[in-house]
């Protein structure tokens, strides 16, 4: 009797999926797949560290503050180093930039054509209370012809529409990688038993509407008038009312919005008049995913992906979610501008 070879139905790893995506685009090379496999490698390592944070001495604050004057968590630094190492060996990454690095870093000895900008562990202040955190990344191609150029600024400060790929890894009840290369949004769940990200959902589409709003209402009194009026409407019987859902970790709040619909808002506040979230490694990647999934992302006056960046760590207001929710919000902003 021949042995039956049992394989799980549709056991497609992220590496296979990326290669399939590449094969659909003859102009692309395996180089891009090789780069993305560096990110998935880092994701597996960070996931293992996050899952054992309570056991390993890696919880809590490190001794430094980052460029924003924010207390760094030990896992922030560990995650940043992990991504730097996993990308550094790829040979095709010329520049990296990170929330945890004051300036972009040119990877020595490579003429790598790719730029990778990332938030190594977003929401890290939540780690000590076991709330989901995440890694967010954006990938560009270097603009400068001279791959050995020393001034990386022109290669890093590109508008979001020029992203080649973007994604996040959310370390929650399971570890989920979500990415796009401009051909749909695809989700993979890390199977710890084999250490592989396995395809969970292909061509994810955000619901066109959703009765959820996600915002830190503690800042309500300093929100722009139009935002206050929109949120008041959400709470009316006419609206439903909507349900409020806010985790305080961008990746987790967006992951829910991507799957369930609704709207995530981080408006300007008295404390952060330009908004709190960073354009290059938080808003841009999230906006790319949202648009690829049929949603929208704006700063209140223009699409996030059309914003011309002035500096690596600049902040922006962010409103992202279902198409109908963003269009409704815009009506309140036009009225109150
Ligand atoms: P607040 C986490 O610190 C973070 O950068 C995002 O992940 C999250 O969406 C936001 O800040 C939460 O900010 O002011 O509501 O605590």
Give the topology.
Elements: H1 14-23, H2 30-51, E1 61-65, E2 71-73, H3 74-88, E3 93-98, E4 105-106, E5 114-122, E6 133-141, H4 153-156, E7 165-171, E8 175-180, E9 185-191, E10 196-201, E11 212-214, H5 225-234, E12 243-244, H6 250-260, E13 263-266, E14 277-278, H7 279-292, E15 296-298, E16 315-316, E17 318-321, H8 323-336
Parallel strand pairs: 3-5, 11-12, 11-13
Antiparallel strand pairs: 1-2, 3-4, 5-6, 6-7, 7-8, 8-9, 9-10, 13-17, 14-16, 15-17
Helix pairs in contact: 1-2, 2-3, 5-8
6-O-phosphono-alpha-D-fructofuranose (P6P) binds at residues 122-123, 125, 216, 248-250, 253, 276.
CATH topology of the largest domain: Fructose-1,6-Bisphosphatase, Chain A, domain 1
Sequence stretches where pLDDT stays below 50 over 5 or more residues: none
Order of helices and strands: HHEEHEEEEHEEEEEHEHEEHEEEH
Q: Taking strands numbered 1, 2, ... along the chain, how are they ordered across the largest sheet?
A: 4-3-5-6-7-8-9-10
Average pLDDT, rounded to a whole number, is: 89
Distance between the termini: 76 Å
Under CATH at level 1, the class of the largest domain stands as Alpha Beta
What is the CATH homologous superfamily assignment of the largest domain?
Answer: Fructose-1,6-Bisphosphatase, subunit A, domain 1
* Number of beta strands: 17
Tell me the count of domains.
Answer: 2
Given helix and strand content, the structural type is alpha+beta
């Amino acid at each position: 009797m021949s042995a039956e070879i049992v394989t799980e139905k549709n056991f497609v790893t992220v590496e296979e999926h990326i290669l399939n995506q590449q094969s659909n685009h003859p102009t692309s090379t395996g180089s891009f797949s090789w780069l993305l496999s560096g990110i998935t490698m880092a994701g597996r390592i960070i996931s293992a560290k996050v899952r054992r944070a309570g056991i390993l001495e890696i919880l809590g604050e490190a001794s430094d503050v980052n460029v924003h004057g924010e207390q760094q968590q030990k896992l922030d630094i560990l995650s940043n180093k992990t991504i730097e190492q996993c990308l550094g060996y790829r040979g095709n990454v010329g520049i990296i930039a990170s929330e945890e690095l004051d300036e972009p870093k040119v990877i020595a000895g490579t003429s790598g054509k790719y730029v990778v900008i990332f938030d190594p562990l977003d929401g890290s202040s939540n780690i000590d209370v076991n709330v989901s955190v995440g890694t967010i990344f954006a990938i560009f191609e270097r603009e400068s012809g001279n791959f050995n150029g020393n001034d990386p600024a022109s290669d890093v400060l590109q508008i979001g529409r020029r992203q080649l790929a973007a994604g996040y890894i959310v370390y929650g009840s399971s570890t989920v990688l979500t990415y796009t290369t401009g051909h749909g949004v695809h989700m993979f769940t890390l199977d710890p038993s084999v250490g592989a990200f396995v395809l969970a959902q292909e061509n994810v589409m955000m619901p066109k509407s959703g009765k959820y709003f996600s915002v830190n209402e503690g800042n309500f009194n300093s929100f722009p008038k139009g935002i206050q009026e929109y949120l008041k409407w959400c709470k009316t019987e006419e609206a439903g009312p909507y349900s409020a859902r806010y985790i305080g970790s961008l990746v987790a709040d967006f992951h829910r919005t991507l799957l369930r619909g609704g709207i995530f808002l981080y408006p300007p506040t008295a404390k952060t008049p330009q908004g709190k979230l960073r354009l290059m490694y938080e808003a841009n990647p999230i906006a790319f995913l949202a648009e690829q999934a049929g949603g929208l992302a704006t700063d209140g006056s223009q699409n996030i992906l059309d914003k011309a960046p002035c500096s690596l760590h600049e902040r922006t207001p962010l409103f992202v979610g279902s198409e109908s929710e963003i269009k409704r919000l815009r009506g309140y902003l036009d009225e109150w501008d």
